[in-house]
């Protein structure tokens, strides 16, 4: 039996940064695919998995900064590849790394990542993914063991291997993300990345030099202690998926677990933080 979906048509004013914030919040509320357009965002969620309470509680829908209206309808399963191919443009990060689809022309960058996102979050277009890619570019990954928690498309794990990591574990609780990461790992000829489906329970007994986690605030606060447990002394933890106003809560939890802030990036109202374990 094919799944049925609810299609939400959001009209957003002003478009940015509201559209990016909306997409991120919807992804955390269970929405699976997004298409940006001139008026706003079209988003899709499996009918049986739509959480009305989580949707009603979206921060951005209560915000006075943006004007957001929407309509919704139930539809049959759509061809996601056709939808995103019409709207997915390649991006360049710090003149060093490109993230593109297979049908885009290869740019002249040191690192070239080919991604077919399908229903997964993580093409580099969103501020949080973009900043995490920046963190990877500006740090040393040569010979490091790495964890990419909440890997989405696998784009961060792929760049970590390209930057010299010797072993990368990529984990996501979502089956679509797990399958999409497996495809993208093969597509980019990566041989040192192992992809797993699951959550923090998979970390027991594991140890890493570097941990990447681009997840929402609540999950990060719940799992920071687990990340610290499996992070080697002197290792680094890179976090994103939360707003600038969430920094105090994130930093406090990290400090309680022996992690000291080292670097910070900001884009629109989003932030990414780098911590080092003493």
Tell me the helix content. 25-40%
Strand % is 25-35%
Known CATH architecture of the largest domain: 3-Layer(aba) Sandwich
Helix/strand/pairing category: alpha/beta
Number of strands: 14
> What does the radius of gyration come to?
18 Å
Instruction: Assign the CATH topology of the largest domain.
Output: Rossmann fold
What is the average per-residue confidence, as pLDDT, rounded to a whole number?
89
Q: What is the CA-CA span between the terminal residues?
A: 52 Å
Overall geometry: globular
| Structural domain tally | 2
Query: What is the assigned CATH homologous superfamily of the largest domain?
Result: Vaccinia Virus protein VP39
Order of helices and strands: EHEEHEHEEEHEHEHEEHEHEE
């Amino acid at each position: 039996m094919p799944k049925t979906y609810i299609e939400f048509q959001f009209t957003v004013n002003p478009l940015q940064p509201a559209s990016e914030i909306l997409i991120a919040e919807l992804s955390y509320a269970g929405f699976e695919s997004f298409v940006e357009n001139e008026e706003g965002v079209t988003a899709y969620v499996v009918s049986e998995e739509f959480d009305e309470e989580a949707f009603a509680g979206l921060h951005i829908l209560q915000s006075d900064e943006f004007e957001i209206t929407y309509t919704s309808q139930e539809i049959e399963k759509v061809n996601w590849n056709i939808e995103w191919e019409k709207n997915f443009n390649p991006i360049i990060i710090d003149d060093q790394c490109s993230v593109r689809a297979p049908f885009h022309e290869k740019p002249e960058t040191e690192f070239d990542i080919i991604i077919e996102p399908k229903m997964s979050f993580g093409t580099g277009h969103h501020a949080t993914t973009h900043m995490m890619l920046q963190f990877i570019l500006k740090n040393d990954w040569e010979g490091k063991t790495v964890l990419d928690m909440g890997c989405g498309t696998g784009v961060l794990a792929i760049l970590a291997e390209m930057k010299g990591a010797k072993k990368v574990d990529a984990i996501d609780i979502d089956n679509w993300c797990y399958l999409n990461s497996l495809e993208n790992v093969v597509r980019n000829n990566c041989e040192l990345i192992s992809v797993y489906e699951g959550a923090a329970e998979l970390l027991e007994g594991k140890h890493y030099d570097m941990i990447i986690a681009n997840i929402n605030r609540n999950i990060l606060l719940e799992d920071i202690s687990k990340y610290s447990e499996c992070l080697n002394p002197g290792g680094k933890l890179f976090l994103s998926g939360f707003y600038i106003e969430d920094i105090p809560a994130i930093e406090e939890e990290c400090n309680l677990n022996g992690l000291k802030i080292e670097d910070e990036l900001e884009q629109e109202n989003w932030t990414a933080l780098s911590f080092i374990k003493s």
